[in-house]
Amino acid sequence: MKTDQTKPGDMKNLFLIVLINFLVTIVFPVSAQDVIFDYDGNPYHPITIGTQVWLKENMKALHYSDGTEIPEVAVYNNSDSLGNIYGRLYTWDAAMKNSVTGGAQGLCPSGWHVPTDGEWSVLENFLGGYVVAGGKLKDTTAGYWNPPNQGADNSSGFTALPAGEYDAYYNPHQFRLLNEYAVFWTSTQITATKARERYLAYDTSACLPYNWFKVMKYSIRCLRDPEVGAEEIKSHGPIQIQNPVDGYLRIMNQTTPVINKIEILDMQFKCVKLFTGNAASAIIDVRDLKPGAYFVLFFIPQGTIVKKMTKVSL
Q: How far is 55 from 47, CA to CA, in rounded Å?
C-alpha cells in the first residue's frame, strides 16, 4: 500500500504556490481581452492610451459580429498579403453596418465600436494636440511609411500603418496612397453623403480631420466601449450648465470660452446630439432626449471639458 510521501516543507511550498497564484489572479487578472478576435478569427491586441483602449491593428473582418457578411470590403490591390499587413478597407456605411449613430458598433467586435470624431479628439489631446499626435500614432518600422515619416515615434503604441485608400468617388476608381497615408473613418456623420475621417501622412506629424464621401474605402480602428459611469469623466473648467435639465440645456456662465463644438453622449458614450459653432451662453433644445443621465462634452481651443447632465421629463 502506497503512503503519502509529502513532506511538511513540500506542503508549505504548495500552499505558497497556491497563495501566489491567487494573488496574481486578483492583482494581475488574466483577461480574455488580452487578444480580441473578430467573427473570422482575426486577432487584435488592445492598447491603453490615456483613458481609452484602442485596438492596435486595423480591422480585417469580412463578417459582422453576428456573422452577416460585410458588403464591399476591399483589400489594397486585391492582395491578401497586403491585407494581412495593413488590414482591409471599408465604405462608411459598411463600417457602420448602415447605422448613422455616432459610436455604433458597426463592424467592430462585440464590446467595441467605431470611434466618434470627439473620441479621436480625446486621443489627440492626450497626445499633446492634433499637430503632434500623428507622429505619436505612426509606426516606425522600416519599409512601411515613405520617408521622411515626419515626427513618427509611435510613443502611443497605436502603430498606425499607411494602408492607403480605395477612391470610389473620383473616376477611375482606384487604390492609392499606400505607404503615404493612413485614413480612418470616424462614426460621425456630416451629411447624408459625407462623414468625418482622420488621416495621417508621411510628410506631417499631425493627425488631421476631413469631411469626405462615404463611398470612399478607408481603414477602421475600433475603440473599447467604456463602462457605464466611468470614473475618469470629471466635471471641471469654467463652463457651467443648469442641472438637472428639463427640455433645454442652458449654458449659464457668461465668461465661458469659445466653444467650437458640443457633443451629448449617453451613458454608453454614444453621441446622441452634436452641435457645432460657438455655443457659449446658449440654450439648446434637448426635448427629444429620453430621461436619464448624459455626458456633455464641450470642445474649446484649450481642450475638452466634460459635464454630467440629468435629463428629466417635461
A: 6
Q: Is 260 exposed, middle or buried (0-12, 13-18, 19+ CB in 10 A)?
A: middle
Does residue 177 come out as left (phi exceeding 0), alpha (psi in the -120 to 50 range) or beta?
left
Rounded distance between C-alpha atoms, residue 120 and residue 115, angstroms: 7
Angle value at C-alpha 42, between 37 and 46, nearest 5 degrees: 50
Q: Give tens-digit pLDDT for 252-269.
A: 654 556 777 888 888 777
Report whether 250 contacts 283 (CB < 8 A).
yes
CB–CB of 231/220 below 8 Å? no
Displacement of CA 229 from its chain's centroid (Å)? 18
Q: 164-191 burial string, b = 16+ CB within 10 Å, else e?
A: bbbbbeeeeeebebbbebbbbbbbbbbe
Contact between 198 and 208 under an 8 Å Cβ cutoff? The reply is: yes
The model's pTM is 0.64
Find where cell 467595441 sits. Answer: 112
- Tens of pLDDT, residues 146-161: 999 999 999 999 999 9
Instruction: Give bridge partners of residue 167 from the DSSP assignment.
Output: 174
Q: Where are the domains of the chain?
A: 34-224, 248-311
Task: With CA atoms as reference, report the closest residue to 50 among 96, 151, 119.
Answer: 119
Q: What is the CATH number of domain 248-311?
A: 2.60.40
Beta strand residue intervals within the chain, DSSP E: 36-37, 43-44, 46-49, 52-55, 112-113, 165-167, 174-176, 181-189, 194-201, 208-213, 223-224, 248-250, 261-265, 271-276, 283-285, 292-300, 303-311
Whether pLDDT at 15 is above 60: no
> What does 145-198 look like in DSSP terms, one character per residue?
SPTT-TT---TTS--B---BEEE-SSSSPEEE-TTTEEEEEEEEE-SSSEEEEE
Q: What's the CA gap between 55 and 222, in Å, rounded?
A: 6
